[in-house]
Amino acid sequence: MSEEIKNYEDLEEKFKKQFKEDITKDEIVFLEHRKFYPNPVISLAPKYCLVALEPALKSSVGKEEGKKRFVDQLFMQSMNNLIIQYCAYKYLCSESFDYQITDVCKVPLTTPERTTIRKKIYSKWENLFSDEIKILNNPKLIAIGYTTEKYLINFTNYSNDAIPHYSSNNNSLFNELLEKHGSNANDLKQSNNKEYIDLYKEIKEFAQNKLVPQINSNSKLLNRQVADINEELFNVIINKKVAQSHKVRYFVYKKIFTEIAEKK
Q1: Which of 78, 83, 105, 181 has its CA 20 to 30 A from that of 170?
Q2: Mean pLDDT, range 200-223, rounded to an integer
C-alpha cells in the first residue's frame, strides 16, 4: 500500500485524482457528463467485498446523466442493485452489514469503450483497488460478473466465488442457474409465494430503514455528505409490481449467497 494512503478518506482522494486524470484522455467521450460518484461505504472492515469492474455508462449519457439520482452513490440506482445488497445483507451476512461493494475501476464506461479503454487505464486502478482492499482489512472477495474473476484471481483473499451480473444479457444464464437450484422461470412466474409478493415491500424497508442509515452513519465518520433519499425517484425504483426478472435474480442471489455463507 502506498505510504501516503493511511485511511479511506485518503484513498478516496486518490480515486478522484485518478478519475480526473482518466477522463481527460482523448479516447473518452462525453467528458462533461461523467461524474465521480462514490461507493456507498457499508462497512470499513467487512468480512466480504462484492466486486464489479466499473460503473456502467449508457451511450445516451447526455440524457441519462442529467437525471437526478435517488441517492448520489453507486450501487443504489436500480432494483437489481438493491436486490444484490438485500441478499448480501440477509443471506450472506445473516442480517448484518458485514459486506462492502465496489468497482475495480471508478470511471464509468460505455459498452464500446470497455474493449479499448480498459487496457489503457486499468493498471493504475488495479493498484488503487489493491490499496482499497488493504484499507478494508482484506475481506474475502466475491466477483459480480464472471468477467470480473480474472481481475481477482491474483488476490490471495479471492474466495473463488462469483455471482452473475444482473444484466439482461445474462437472462439465459439466470435460467440455467434456476434449473441448477431446482426451479425454473415458469415456476417463479406462476408463484404466489408470499416471499415474492412481499419482496418489494421488504427491499424498500431495507433500503430506507437499514441500508441508507448505515451508509449515512459511515459517511459521518468519513466527513462525507450524508445520502439524502429522493422519495419520488425512490418510489419509481421500488414499484408495486413484482417483475419476473427481479424474482429470478432474487432467487439466484439468495441461493448463491446462502451457499457461500455455509462454507465458513
Answers
A1: 105
A2: 85
